[in-house]
Prior knowledge:
Layout: E1 2-8, H1 10-13, H2 20-31, E2 35-42, H3 46-59, E3 62-66, H4 77-85, E4 89-91, H5 93-105, H6 112-115, E5 119-121, E6 125-127, E7 136-141, E8 144-149, H7 153-174, E9 181-189, H8 194-201, H9 205-208, E10 212-217, E11 222-231, H10 233-251, E12 255-258, H11 263-274, E13 278-282, H12 288-294, E14 303-308, H13 312-319, H14 323-329, H15 334-348, E15 352-358, E16 373-380, E17 383-390, H16 395-416
Parallel strand pairs: 1-2, 1-3, 3-8, 13-14, 13-15
Antiparallel strand pairs: 4-5, 6-7, 7-8, 9-11, 9-12, 10-11, 15-16, 16-17
Helix pairs in contact: 2-7, 3-4, 11-16
Amino acid sequence: MKLEVITIGTELLLGHALDTNAIDLGTTLAAAGIEITRRTSVADRPAAVADAVRGALERTGAVLTTGGLGPTKDDLTKQAVAGLFGRPLVLHEAVLRHIEERFRRFGRTMTPSNRIQAELPQGAVALSNPRGTAPGIWLEDGERLVIMLPGVPVEMRGLLAEEVLPRLVARMARAGEETRVVRSRTVRLTGMPESAVGEKVGPLEDGLAPLTVAYLPSIPGVDLRLTAWDLPPAEADRRLGEAVDRLRREFGIRCYGLDTDDLAGVVLDLLRARGLRLAVAESCTGGMLGERLTAIPGSSDVFVGGVIAYADDVKVALLDVPRATLQTHGAVSEATVRAMAEGACVRFGVECAMAVTGIAGPAGGTPEKPVGTVWLAARHGGETRALGRKFLGERDEIRARSAQAALDLLRHALLEARPPRSQ
């Protein structure tokens, strides 16, 4: 099946909001064997919406829109589409009851503008939206199909998975179409530059065919995106699984996860499996390590807390870094970062710790310690590992790379330690 996607919102054109809906629709629909032939963004203007939908229907006969279903004056998507189909808007009693109940449940007063959200083009099917007040709308007329979804990302994703995909798959089955999909897997690497990754993957690419490989470098590392194109679902999954296994063997410990895995989550899982607790001591990262860890649900059973020791006096008072160490070696040094990690373990009574100290810039560097100089430490099993790095980039990039490198240093320490005794 082929369809076009139209994302509606003036804020998208002005650059005030990222079009994450288009990304989610692209990956989800392709994985279900539905091809997006064109993607368009238009402003919140009835004429612009109508022109875009009309053109999409003429080309493919099917279109999915996001946005413009809210209660305000600029939410005019269904009005524009209803006009194209020659359908009046009529009140949908079941939708109205859902909206009223939602307002009662949250102890709020429903406004007349919210009632408008219960008006649908005559003959349309309301798609249940438990996450918001605006229903999705499914409108068919012979060979033409328009699917209208809210622009709020969490609402759009829920409706897509629970209401839209089952209907589209059933529609393809009725038409006797063979399901052929576009599916991807991601191998996540860290601690290697893109050029080094390319040198290892290049000789393997012919053997990975018909899959394609995309290199996606970012601050955390390099992702390898493997994509199967236009294959039956079972064959796509088989080929992707084999390719993922091959790349994981090739890169070994440099591969920290797959798909949406986060390095902080991987580290937490390793600690949890060993019954260990963690604390952090941060200087130049200013809380980034703690934020990475606490962003993972369930981290509280492993991560106990940390110290942002930006000033030397705090390093001395809260982490027991010897003042003589600071005076002799400086705040950005191997001796200091080791003392910070060891002090965090003592201060919090934990078995593991990470520490970071560095010069994130743009000022503060010297010929001996230029901007980007960072020292990292990871303590585990009574031993402390320290690593000095020189990172390139702007201030935020240096800080983010430092947090990623600290997590990776602890991951290596955990994986390379002797396995825990069986209980």
